């Protein structure tokens, strides 16, 4: 009697499991359910030992070390050239949420700048804070022209180039607002426009000593010095915006970190793990459609001189097709190329022949690595 009970229990469990699996299969699509029952192609033996990038410590005559572990707060890295044998790397080391009420919420960021020599050794560091709010107490800081420039509080630091952390004020012009319209216009068009390297409109809303109708100003860099010209009026302010945007004089962060050239990255193999489907496209005017894709692992090679950095990237998706447009435009080769391009865009690097190391950024995990010979 006990044996029959056990058999019935096992049979019941099996039936319930099959019903559950069928329900899951129907929810995902019965085709994906049955495809996932089939065995997968065995991974080629030479790829079995590929590790995640964070686990690779050495390849050939090269070492790879984690310079900075990323997190949700690391939305980008910046690399600034200081000299032939020195660079600066900026990372966000901490984030703190703020909420001042009335919809004024966001994040404040702690930034650390690392000055590295040609061998990747950290020579010095400095820190500052930034914010996602345009009206923050930290101002608007950019790394530009081998300097740390605060466009809101009108000071700059030359620490990247010479180690001086002192805040040096912009040269103020027409702060007493005594210049005539004619003098402002002549000085702007004859002196600032032809001589400035960087130029942007500036609204002096933080300075209560300036009347509201006189706050339209400009900031610019000329003759190796930062300046602020107050009370320029709308015409000059508008022209400064044109000069900034259309004539490449905008005061924005420099960043030498760039995409790794495609010819250096090879997708050695794509391992299909799971076949999936999803429904999309449903609107008031369009009917929904199902698209199908593989979830798997990409095995990646990156060439470094005579050595090759080998690692795997998990959770990579390869489109199969969608039942809305299953046609010649959805060929296997096209989708594979699309997948490879997507994987290649996940990595950035900085290389300089004067340096004895290369920087690699995993743009998804936000990890930053140094590769040294």
From TrEMBL:
Domain of life: Bacteria
Record-given protein name: DKNYY family protein
Organism: Flavobacterium piscisymbiosum
């Amino acid at each position: 009697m006990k044996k029959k009970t056990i058999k019935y229990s096992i049979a019941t469990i099996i039936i319930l499991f099959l019903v559950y699996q069928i329900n899951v299969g129907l929810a995902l699509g019965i085709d994906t359910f049955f495809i996932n029952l089939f065995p997968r192609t065995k991974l080629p033996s030479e790829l079995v030992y590929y590790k995640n990038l964070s686990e690779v410590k050495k390849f050939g005559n090269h070492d790879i070390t984690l310079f900075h572990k990323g997190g949700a707060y690391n939305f980008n890295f910046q690399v600034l050239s200081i000299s032939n044998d020195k660079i600066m790397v900026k990372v966000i080391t901490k984030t703190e949420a703020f909420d001042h009420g009335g919809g004024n919420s966001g994040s404040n960021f702690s930034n650390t700048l690392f000055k590295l020599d040609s061998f990747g050794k950290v020579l010095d560091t400095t820190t500052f804070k930034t914010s996602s709010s345009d009206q923050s107490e930290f101002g608007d800081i950019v790394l530009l022209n081998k300097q740390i420039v605060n466009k809101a509080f009108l000071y700059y630091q030359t620490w990247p180039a010479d180690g001086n952390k002192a805040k040096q004020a912009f040269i103020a012009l027409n702060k007493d607002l005594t210049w005539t319209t004619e003098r402002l216009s002549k000085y702007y068009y004859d002196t600032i426009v032809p001589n400035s390297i960087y130029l942007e409109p500036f609204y002096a809303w933080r300075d209560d000593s300036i009347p509201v109708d006189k706050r339209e100003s400009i900031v610019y860099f000329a003759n190796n010095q930062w300046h602020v010209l107050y009370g320029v009026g709308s015409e000059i302010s508008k022209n400064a915006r044109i000069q900034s945007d259309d004539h490449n004089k905008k005061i924005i962060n420099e960043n030498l970190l760039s995409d790794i050239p495609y010819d250096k990255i090879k997708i050695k193999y794509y391992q299909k793990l799971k076949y999936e489907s999803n429904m999309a496209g449903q609107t008031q005017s369009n009917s929904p459609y199902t698209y199908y894709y593989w979830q798997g692992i990409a095995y990646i090679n990156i060439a470094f001189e005579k050595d090759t950095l080998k690692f795997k990237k998990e959770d990579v998706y390869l489109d199969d097709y969608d039942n809305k447009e299953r046609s010649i435009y959805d060929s296997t080769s096209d989708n594979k190329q699309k997948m490879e391009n997507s994987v290649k865009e996940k990595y950035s690097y900085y290389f300089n022949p004067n340096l004895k190391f290369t920087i690699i950024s995993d743009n998804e995990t936000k990890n930053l690595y140094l590769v040294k010979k």
